[in-house]
Structures are given as structure tokens and as C-alpha cells.
Amino acid sequence: MNTHPQVLDGTGAEISGLSAPAIGTPRTRVEGRDKVSGKARYAGDIPIERLAHGAVVTATIASGRITAIDPSATLASPGVIGVIDHRNAPRVDPEAGSPFFGPDGQLQLLQDDQIAHGGWPVALVVAETHEQARAGAERLRVSYVEQPHDIAFSPGHPAARPALSAFGPDANKGDLDAELAASAVVVDESYTTPAQHACAMEPHVATAWLEGAVLRGIDSNQAPYGIAAQLATLFGKPLSDVRVQVEQVGGGFGSKTGLGPQLILATMATMLFHRPVRVALTREEVFLATSARPRTDQRVRLGADRDGRLRAIGHEAAFEISGKSEFIENCVEIAKTLYAADAIRTRLNVVPLNILPVASVRAPGTAPGSFALESAMDELAERLDMDPLDLRRRNEPEVGPVSGLPFTSRNFQLCLSEGARQFGWAGRDHRPRRRREGHLLIGTGMAGTSFFTTAFPSSATITAEQDGTFTVAIAAIDIGTGARTALHAIAADALRVGWDRIRLRIGDSAIGPAWQAGGSLGTTSWGWAIVAAARDLLEQLESGPALPVSVTSDTTEEIMSRPHRERHSYSAVFAEVAVDPATGEVRVRRLVGRFAVGRVVNPLMVRSQLTGGMIMGLSIALQEEVVRDEVSGRQVNADFAGYHFAANADVPFIDADFVEDHEPDDPLGMKGPGEIGTVAVAAAIANAVWHATGKRHRELPIRLDRVIED
Amino acid sequence: MTNDARSEISLHINGTTHRLTVDNRRTLLDALREDTRHIGSKKGCDFGQCGACTVLVNGRRVVSCLTLAVAAEGAEVITVEGLAVNDELRPVQEAFVRLDGLQCGFCTSGQLCSAVGVLAEHAAGWPSAVTPDLSPDQPHRPLDADEVRERMSGNLCRCGAYPSIVRAVLEAAECEEVNR
Question: Nearest CA to A403 among A483, A479, A344?
Fold first, then answer.
């Protein structure tokens, strides 16, 4: 791999001969040349001797049980090696799951005859080639007894119950009803968002094989260590006998943080057939059998004095889950921390349905939650006849509005003012439906957000080699975030050496415990571990020991001993739209985002990540929606022709940049830019559509049929 | 009809001829990836909807997942591995790296093959859906951002690298104009 990325100046021109510090310098991707010449290797690209291929068969019913599986036609099909279903699959540990949400039923593949959602894998056909596996899978006869399914989501569903409280308790500050009653202006509206998919361009793919007692896996994922640990528990192996590796990952956006069906099924197949087995999910299977963001229904109540000071914030959200797995779509996070108010009350409920398990999709909780809260804030500004930017300026809290804890660094107001200046917000006529260009209605809107930040325990090993280089090993992974390049820079600065003296090794669970590429905290958490190991190594090197010398450091204690404080990133997003009332088409013309995301390691890549996040937000506003068939219970738009997200022509001029920001409780001052770009965009666009047309859109996506006028 | 019929074919990939026996159901994409180890072409959907598998066949952009390998016999196939000349990146590849026209990189091979196709199509005077004037005697107009967005919309990128992709293709177009 070419590890000599170009160093760029502010205009993007190359600078040569620049030395440390590496942090803060725009650099092209370490693996950039490999990615543009087809040499970068993803999980499905690694050749393995004697490889067999698995094809998945998914349930055609949404609720019921399997009565019979007849494999005779499949087994007679050319090249088929065998079929795995619930009758012959290896038994797995029912307690396996995640540290946050407990035992996870979606890991219990092929363990019984029960079907709880359409698309649940019921069998794997293994064959010499993937065409033969697919043909064999098409011939497998599965009979079911169907039971009535329930996919009808509503917050008042009889099965609704409180969500787990692992992400903090409900807010119960002050007397919400009394403050609403005392408010001069009240907003009380409900907002809904549909189920959405991560749609990473690389479908989930894994290859598994046994090397003696050691289970080896090459898997497209966001957490090599965490997934190896889950896999070990699931199959009752010591972690030392499980190793999961990957070089490049073709995007994740949350959908590859947990142990996926591809690796579980490939493991079962290699255990039964004693061959390396690759399971590559089809795009349809990625939609049907890997997790999605849940539908939400959110009631927001805001009460304010005439001058815009908030008295009351009530945010009660419900989201759907499957009966198999717990999850927390924490829609109410922002309501607890973004604005000051005398009373703040939040509730978070789940509604179990016959749907596929839900889990993280980029900015879980905050993406749908900010749509509700920041749309309601715009409605409040409208009813107050006030600039929505001013409304947000008037409600800045001194300390955590619910927690009472101090903020470590809070640059929300800076994001608002910088964004407004760049966008040209001043002088906006706040009344709706005032601007026209020919038949088009033009509007502008804005929204802001906070995004929780912390760091998670990780370990790193650094070796001072005899040749003067340093080998830095951490079970990190780069899913397109730029983590590999950023960690290289962090290591160079932490060891106080030039770029060329760092050899970075990531993407291997055997390196040791490390956090995932998730929660916007991959590089932040891994960077801290590298800083800790570099510090400990440099200390050892002072005595002039014989080389090589290795040091492994773990950040658990340092992170856990930090004081409790409010730690968040912030953003402000401004949008301009043109609406064609005759066709209902909304075109976003401009998006401006300003972000306080802590210290920026690589400005080139962080801008890319924020820009990409905003584009996902644009898709969420206007396009993305899982459509399920009420009769079959199955998703009907399980492909890219039916499930839309932004193509190149949908994306306008985007200006994403950061303001000066620094997290004092992180050794590098970092927060994390991975997800916040996706938040606040849908509300900013919805608010702009209201400004253009005078119509409020409280239901996403803002589809043509919802916009079109008679 | 048997499900396992095979054919002997020759594929010309990046200037090299490969003699293969393939399952008749084998797509050009799988023949590239599995039989001839051209792993740069990616399978994002296998349905012709994402563009990650885009290659050039006789100079035209095609989605190789919807092209049977047997149907590509005798054609000149160029994949991302064939874009660089003597290990030197083409201007559009170099611009993708420098302007960060990629993040995860999974769609990048398709984007690049598509971009090379776009530049050739535009140079040949082919219009797109956003070309304002289609009359035949129009003078050659340089590519602009709207044209690139339109012409590159068959290649999805979930990371959202589109703005940098547009800049990279425009830079490469300028570079090619100068070279002509």
C-alpha cells in the first residue's frame, strides 16, 4: 500500500517537504491510490483456497412457523454441497448479545422453526460456485403455517412499553403542564419518520474457515474486536480461538456494528462442511435481513413567553422494534440538552412488531429526533412571528438544562452565527410563500443540533523497531471515515516523529480490545489509546533499552475517571429550496452547515464526512422510506429502484465547514464528526419547504404527493 | 434446459486475452472478479441499479452485472485496473485522490470508469438530459457541473462524495481539453 499521501494547502494544492505536526494538516487518504486503481481489497475480494459459496433462503411469511423443508431438489442440483436449516445447524448460545442491549435474538439464526418477520433467514445452501448456490436456494421447498402478523405501528399500540434506559433516564424537570399553561404561545404537534436503511454500497459479506481450533473470519464490519467477541460467545469458543479480520470496508453507517447474518451463517457452514465458506448477502437480503432504523412517532410540546423564552419542552417519542432484539432509538436526546427551559419532560416508548430488528443507522435517535424538535421550534418561531435563528439564540443554557452539569465546550451559538453569515440569512422575510421565481416557490430554513460525544475504552500496542520505525497496532477499522489516515497522523505526532516512520496495523481482532467505528467515536477512542501507548513507550525509551520494545496501553481507567459533564458536538444547518407546486418536486439548491466537532485531525476528510452526512440528511428529508406490504408483511421496496437515496443530480452546492472547537477532557481535543452531518438537515429542509409553500410537513419523507398543489 | 451449461470464451480485458470456461449464467462482473481476479469492479446490487460494477466495453459504459460474460466475448473490456497507463494514474484518478472524491471507495471503480466514459461521450458531442440546446450545429460546450451531475447519476455513492466527484471530473475534463 502506498502510505505517502499528499499534503495539501488551503486551496487543495500539494505541498511537499512538510514536517510535523501531522494533526490539523489536510492529507489525502493513505489508501487513496489503491482505491482509485482497484487494488484496495474488501472482504469479498480476498482469495481463499477451496472456497465454497453460501446462498441464503429467507422467510416469505412475516409470522408463523416452518412446517417442512424439502431439500431433495436442492441436493440434486449441480454443485450443491449441502443445506443448513434449523434441524442441522450448530446450536448457539441464547445469551449472546451486546453489552448495551443484552441477549440478541437476531443472532439466533437457524435455531428453531419460528418466524417473526418477513425476510428472516431460514436456510443456507452451500455449493461450489455462487451461481450453483443461488440455483439450489431457488429450488429449496419451505412450507409454513402462517399466523397473523402485526406491522401496524402507532404510539398508542397496546403492546407499547418504555424503552430500555441504558442511555439515561427520562427527563422530569419542573412541571411541564403548569409551564405550558403559563406560556403565551404553545406548539403541540406530532411528527413521524419512516423506517430507513443504511444502504452501505458494499453488501454484507463474510468468509469463515477453521484453522485447527481457531475460527477465522474475513467480514465486512465496523468492529473487528467486538464482532469476534460476539462470535466467540455465540459459538461457545474462547476469544483466543476466534479471529476476525478485514482490510477495507465499503461503508457501514451503523449497519455493520453488530455480528451480521453473513458471518454467523458462514461460520455454521464451515463447521458443517469443513470448507472455507463465503456468504455474500444480495442487496435484497441486506434490506430484508440486516437491521434498519425504526419508524418513529414523536409528540413535541413547546411553550414560550412572548419574547421567545422557552418555558416548556415536552418530547414524547415512540419507535418500533422487533420482538427479537432490544434497541434504543434515542429521539429525545437533544430535548434534554440543546435549549434551556423551566420544564423539560421526555418519554421514550417501544412498540414490538413483526419487523426485522432495528439498530443503528447513522445518527440513531438524533436524526429523527431533531426533525421533530427542530420542526417544532420553527413552528414556534412562526407563531411568535420571530426569526427562527433568534429563537435559538434566546434559549442558550448555562449548564445542562436537565442534568445541571457543566458543558465541557459548547459552541452552538458560534455554529449558528457562522452558518447564518455564510448563508446570508440576515434580512430574510420570515413570512411564508413570499418568494417566487417563475412558477417555482423559493424558501429558506434552518435547524441546529447537539450530538453526544465521549470516548470508549480501547487498547493499542506500539513497538519501537530497530530500524527507527514504529509499528502501531490497534483493532480499529476504516469504513471510509478516513480513520486509517487520521490514526497515522495521531501516531506520528504522539511519537514526535515524521509520517514515514509510522507503520499502522488495523482491522484485526487479534490485536486487542478496541471500540468500533461507531457512535462517531472510532477515531476519537482509538486516537486516545495510541496517545496513551505512545506516552508509555516514550517513557520506556528514555532508559535506552535494546530494541525492539513493545508497549500495550489501555484507556479504560483514564476514560472512566473523567468527571461527569455535558459533552456534545454542535451544528447549524441552513437550506434553500425551490418547490414546483405543479409537480410537488422539491429541489434543494443550497445547504450550508457549520459544525463544532472538536479538534479536526484531517480537514480534507472531515469536510468530506460532514458533506456526506448532510447528503444523507437530504435523502432522509426527501427520499428515504421503507415501504412494507400490509398483506405479506414484507418490505416491497427492497432494492435501489424502490428505496431511493440521493444520486449525484439530487445534490446541490454544499458548504460544510467547522468552527474552532476543542474538547478539554480528551487528550487530543477531539469529539467526532461521523454522524452529526446527517442530523438537523431534514428539519432545515422541511422548514424551508414551509417557508416556500406555507405548508408544514410533519411526516417524512417530503414526497411529491405530499407537496403537490391542486 | 440444464442449469449448468458452460461455454468456452475469450475475454479481452485491459489489453490481455483470457481464455475461460464459464457457466452460461456467469455475469461479466463475476467473470472479472472470480475468474480473472479483476477485483476492482464491485458488486453493490447485482441488479444494474447502483453502478459500482461499471466498466467500459468497446469504449461504452456498461453495468457488468447485467452483462453476461458470454455476451462480452470478443469485446474490449476496460476495468478500473486498466485506467492507469504504465502505473501512472489518469488525471481523473489523480483528481479523485487529491479532491477526496471517495470515502469508503466501494463505488469508486464504477465512478471512475463512468467518468472516463462521460469524458469520451461529451468529447464526441453526445448530449445529456440537461444539455440546453440539442440542435446539431451547436458549438462544443465545455462540461459544467450540472452536466457532470446528470451524466454521473447512474453511479450511486452512499458516503456522499458527489460534490468532490463533480469537481474531480471537471478538472479531468479541463486537463483533457488542454491535451487535445
Answer: A344
Q: Give the closest-approach CA distance of A693 to chain B in angstroms.
A: 26
Q: Which of B49, B89, B159 sits opposite A640 (nearest CB)?
A: B49
Are residues A458 and A487 in contact, defined by beta-carbon separation less than 8 angstroms? no
The whole-angstrom separation of Cα A67 and Cα A63 is: 13
The helix or strand, by DSSP H or E, that contains position A267, with its residue range, turns out to be helix A261-273
Using CB atoms, pick whichever of A12, A135, A640 lies closest to residue B45: A640
Extract the C-alpha cell encoding A166: 441504558
Nearest CA in chain A to B4: A78
Burial A665-676 (b: 16+ CB within 10 A, else e): bbbbbbbbbbbb
Among left, alpha and beta (phi > 0; psi -120 to 50; other), residue A427 is left
CB A640 within 8 A of CB B50: yes
Write out pLDDT tens, residues B88-143.
999 999 999 999 999 999 999 999 999 999 999 999 999 999 998 888 787 888 99
- What's the pLDDT at A12? 59
- Interval A418-455: pLDDT, tens: 999 999 999 999 999 999 999 999 999 999 999 999 99
Find the CB nearest B39 among A41, A131, A135. Answer: A41
Q: Which of A558, A576, A602 is the last residue of a domain?
A: A558
For chain A, what percent of residues have pLDDT higher than 70?
98
**Residue A491 shares a structural domain with residue A636:** no
Domain count, chain A: 2
Q: Quick check: B93 contacting A, CB < 8 Å?
A: yes
How far from chain centre, in Å, is Cα A20?
32
Task: Specify the pLDDT at position A48.
Answer: 95
Distance from the B169 Cα atom to the nearest Cα atom in chain A, whole angstroms: 12
Residues 119-178 of B with CB under 8 A from A: 148-150, 152-166
C-alpha cell of A509?
481482532
Flag whether B1 is in a domain: no
Q: CATH number for the domain including B151? A: 1.10.150.120
Measure CB to CB from residue B79 to each of A38, A47, A645 and give the nearest one: A38
**How many domains does one find in chain B?**
2
**Cell numbers found for residue B30:** 463475476
- The minimum CA-CA distance between B27 and chain A, rounded to whole Å, is 10
Q: Of B82, B114, B145, which residue constitutes the final position of a domain?
A: B82
Q: Which of residues 44 through 83 in chain A touch B, CB cutoff 8 A?
A: 44-45, 47, 77-79
Q: Do B100 and A605 touch (CB under 8 A)?
A: yes
Residue with grid cell 460532514, as numbered in its chain: A610
Q: A98 lies in a domain?
A: no
A582-626 pLDDT tens trace: 999 999 999 999 999 999 999 999 999 999 999 999 999 999 999
CB of A477 less than 8 A from some CB of B:
no
Q: Are residues A597 and A494 in the same domain?
A: no
Residues on chain B touching A35 (C-beta within 8 angstroms): 97, 102, 105, 108
A675 is catalytic: yes
Domain that holds residue A463: 455-558
Q: Is A433 within the bounds of a domain?
A: yes
Question: Which positions ≥6 away from B137 have C-beta within 8 Å?
Answer: none
Domain ends where: A558, A579, A611? Answer: A558
Domain that holds residue B29: 6-82
Alpha-carbon span A603 to A585, nearest angstrom = 34
| Judgement on whether residues A571 and A687 belong to the same structural domain of the protein | yes
- The complex scores an ipTM of 0.97
CATH at A685: 3.30.365.10
Residue A114 has what pLDDT?
Answer: 97
A459 and A449 within one domain:
no
